[in-house]
Amino acid sequence: MAKHDPDLSALFHALSDPTRRAMLARLAAGPLTVTELAAPTGLRLPTVLKHLGVLEAAGLIASAKDGRIRTCAFVPGALAPARDWMEAQRSLWEARLDRLEAYVMQLMKEGGHDQ
Amino acid sequence: MAKHDPDLSALFHALSDPTRRAMLARLAAGPLTVTELAAPTGLRLPTVLKHLGVLEAAGLIASAKDGRIRTCAFVPGALAPARDWMEAQRSLWEARLDRLEAYVMQLMKEGGHDQ
DNA sequence: ATCATGCTTAGCCATACGGCTTAGTAACAC
DNA sequence: GTGTTACTAAGCCGTATGGCTAAGCATGAT
């Protein structure tokens, strides 16, 4: 498998799981502790911690431990690279449409009466 | 594992692989055949076809066979759900900031002696 | 000191993923 | 027809993923 773009791969992979997306959505509304995050999932703590590890490795959340309680928080800018990449694809596509249009215009100018 | 959001899961999963992202990027610039797509990857055809299957299942590309040649094309709107989801998280985050700000304003108006 | 809480570590298990090979099948070229 | 080209189908292999249990380890409460 290719080795470049570890960031985007980790980002998209982290987002590809519904459990992780749900956690991220809850964190976007405000910080939560690990147990609070686990509560609505029906999953065991170790499983939840693995998900949090994936999210944190992708840079989507940050966490800090105060006493025995770990609090997790959404990292606001983290989704930007993913958004940028998708935007780049859209741009590519539109550039192609523009070239097509330019080509058609050219044809029309050159051969006004032919089809 | 949770069962909702199969679309987003498939979408993000499809995007989580660098090979697939590279293929999608090339397709965003214009349609290509399977062999053309495979060429720069260094991967075998069956492997490439699996990747194409993932991309197509996610709705990111469409393909059609003409004679013995299958041509693949970028599907422009397909990234929108992913972008929308990410935008929703950003909104959540900003709503939270707004509430925080409103709260602070309230504290300041009251003179800050109690809650 | 003892116990409860909250997280952590280690490891098991089944399935999915990303790569491969080998062997087809369907169209075009001669 | 024979062969070549372009894709497809089937299945193997090693690793990663997503879930679990069981046990450990701090910290806070009694």
UniProtKB/TrEMBL annotation, chains A, B:
Residues 1-94 form the HTH arsR-type domain. SMART domains: HTH_ARSR (SM00418). InterPro entries: ArsR-like_HTH (IPR011991), HTH_ArsR_DNA-bd_dom (IPR001845), WH-like_DNA-bd_sf (IPR036388), WH_DNA-bd_sf (IPR036390). It comes from the Bacteria. Transmembrane segments: none annotated. Pfam families: HTH_20. NCBIfam families: HTH_metalloreg. This is Metalloregulator ArsR/SmtB family transcription factor.
